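[09:14] KT: can someone run the structure on this one? pasting the chain below
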Amino acid sequence: MYSPFWAFDTIPLVYIYTVSVHPTKIKGWAVHYVQTDRYFFYAGSAKLVLYDSRPESSTYKLINELYFSETNRSIILVPPHVYHAIQNVGTTEILLINFPSHVYQHDDPDKYTLSLDNHLIPYTFDSKINLL
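[09:31] RB: done, structure tokens below
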């Protein structure tokens, strides 16, 4: 799943946890201002939607949709200031592992959320997903 020899990034590996999303469900929108997330999708069919809120970025205010499944596994880096949401577009539970750059601080979490229907992100999730 992950090897520092791949030179994927230079961010320290501080801890690892598993995330699941049930069929027809969406997890998100979330953003971190310090933390970088590294996701490894390994089970289920997932759509990861990204919205870049970094003014200095060439993808500022753009949406990116990425699809993952058992036959299309990948590690993806989600940098700070990029909103992210995960939609289960299949019939089985999505399982992914996160290798974040920082340990979660319960007293001062670097996690901010928006409702799926908000005025900042110009994206509407398809509620009529054709489940495989």
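[09:33] KT: thanks! The chain has a mean pLDDT of 92.
[09:34] RB: yep, looked fine to me
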